[in-house]
Amino acid sequence: MAEKAYFKQHVEPQDLDFTSRLKAPNLIMAALNAAGRDAHNKGFDYVDMEADNHTWVLGRMAIEVKDRPKQYSDYQIETWISGYNRILSTRNFRMYDEQGQEFAVMTSQWAMLDMTTRTSVDLTQTTGKVHDIYMVPDPEPCAPAGRLRPLSDGERHNHRVRYSDIDFNRHMNTIRYIEMIFDRLPIEAISENRPFRLDLHFLNEAILGEMLTITTAEQEGTLLFEIASEKKTCVRASVRFLE
Amino acid sequence: MAEKAYFKQHVEPQDLDFTSRLKAPNLIMAALNAAGRDAHNKGFDYVDMEADNHTWVLGRMAIEVKDRPKQYSDYQIETWISGYNRILSTRNFRMYDEQGQEFAVMTSQWAMLDMTTRTSVDLTQTTGKVHDIYMVPDPEPCAPAGRLRPLSDGERHNHRVRYSDIDFNRHMNTIRYIEMIFDRLPIEAISENRPFRLDLHFLNEAILGEMLTITTAEQEGTLLFEIASEKKTCVRASVRFLE
Asked: Which domain holds residue B20?
């Protein structure tokens, strides 16, 4: 039967914020990279998909962070796929600190995109089924990303997409969107290392040179974010601090 | 006798630019992290220094990059200290690809700062001498960072220092300055993977909330950069493409 994958991580100086703890955006990227390595090891990652002109695209994710590891400490990322339907495959994560304590949980939904037609592939058919044998019957460790409505009003800030923002696909890096969101959080919430839940929807990709606007608003104690270019909405997100 | 240190690296997806090669800013950060780990292993890194309220500060560096490794490839960083005087310690780097070919060389000068007095410590005395026994008599693999004059005129762009820009010291991350410079390079030079030399002077630290202005100009085929806040010049740099 299929087994979960484990990846050992080390908190390097460049992963730290001013609390000397791992930055949440870096934790999320470490998790997404672990997902990539797991898929690579199992033969259904981007590289292999490209042979069929297919690629995995992150659609939604939710992460709950109770604590963040300190500098020079080790932590471990546990990841597994719990299931899929025609459109989306679900990959989960649990993060454990040096003492084996769970400090964060994450769940994400991925679609397989046909690069030629730019449409999603039916995961119950052919190439979609390659990861079939790797399902682990352990459900999501937290609620999947919830509904996020369009954000019309709020405080607005601009960001031009530069070379350092883009990835190998010439798209804005996932971590950059997440950093744009964290740059808008109340700084004291970060100093106090307050537990939080982040929900993210990835809708469209921003490309080099595009001007992005991040809109921020608050509704019933939840911070809402929308990152959009002139033409399209790229990312919607919400952050809720947990007591 | 003292020996050079070696650090194995792997080009992860997040290290790639749109040429599917390791981004130069990420290469430089990997080298600076290798320096930190080497100092840590030998007991004269930030952590140990803080005990004496001393810390290493990067003053100047120069890097020459002939080529950049491709995604999923391994590379190796060789680093050693070649000497020091009262003010500056010189640390060098050679980078080798999977085939053992040298693809980049780098040299850097570091001062030891007393955090209380904010003045540099005489390296020929007491704590400065802790790294004495680790000198390797192999000189700089490239010319040290050259003279960089103040830049009065040029094209200007602003950047507000945000949470995602700052490090554990609440200062702008070194990699962010370097990314600001690479964001101003002609994009075709990057697509063509043109060999280049980068000279950098680190003069003052930018802090959270400060508005930075990057000024860019060209003189005799060399691109010049100055990053300054309202109050002070933070970084001066030059980029020359090598034929």
From this structure: 1-144
Do B6 and B116 fall into the same domain? Answer: yes
Does residue A12 sit in the same domain as residue A56? yes
Same domain, A92 and A166: no
- What pLDDT digit, counting tens, does each position of A173-212 carry? 999 999 999 999 999 999 999 999 999 999 999 999 999 9
- Enter the tokens of residue A239: 């952050």
Q: CATH number of the domain that B23 lies in?
A: 3.10.129.10
User: CA–CA separation, A163 vs B187, rounded Å?
Assistant: 8
Residues B140 and B150 in one domain: no
ipTM for this prediction: 0.90
A47, HSE (Cβ side, Cα atoms, 13 Å):
13
Q: Would you call A182 an interface residue with chain B, using a CB distance cutoff of 8 Å?
A: yes
CB atoms closer than 10 angstroms to residue A104? 26
- According to the model, what pLDDT value does residue B117 have? 86
Q: Measuring CA to CA, how many Å separate A147 from each of A65, A199, A201, A237, B69? A: 20, 9, 9, 10, 41
Structural domain ending residue among the three candidates A119, A144, A169: A144
- Whether B15 contacts chain A with CB within 8 A: no
Q: Report yes or no: A193 at the B interface, CB cutoff 8 Å.
A: no
pLDDT in tens, B65-99: 999 999 889 999 999 999 999 999 999 999 999 99
Q: Smallest CA–CA separation between B36 and chain A, in Å?
A: 9
Grouping H, G, I as helix, E, B as strand and the rest as coil, residue B54 is strand
Last residue of a domain, one of B94, B115, B144: B144
Rounded to whole angstroms, the Cα distance separating B53 from B47 reads 9
Same domain, yes or no: B94 and B168:
no
Q: In terms of domains, do B56 and B25 share one?
A: yes
Instruction: Tell me how many domains chain A contains.
Output: 2
Cross-strand pairs, A226: A215, A236
- Residue carrying structure tokens 């405080």: A155
Q: In this structure, what token pair is assigned to residue A153?
A: 């009003």
The pLDDT value recorded for residue A115 is 81
- Contact: A17, B166; criterion CB under 8 Å: yes
Q: What is the pLDDT of residue A153?
A: 94
pLDDT at residue A46 above 80?
no
Q: What is the pTM of this model?
A: 0.92
Q: Which residues pair with B93 in a beta bridge?
A: B79, B106
Whether residue A10 lies within 8 A of chain B, CB to CB, comes out as no
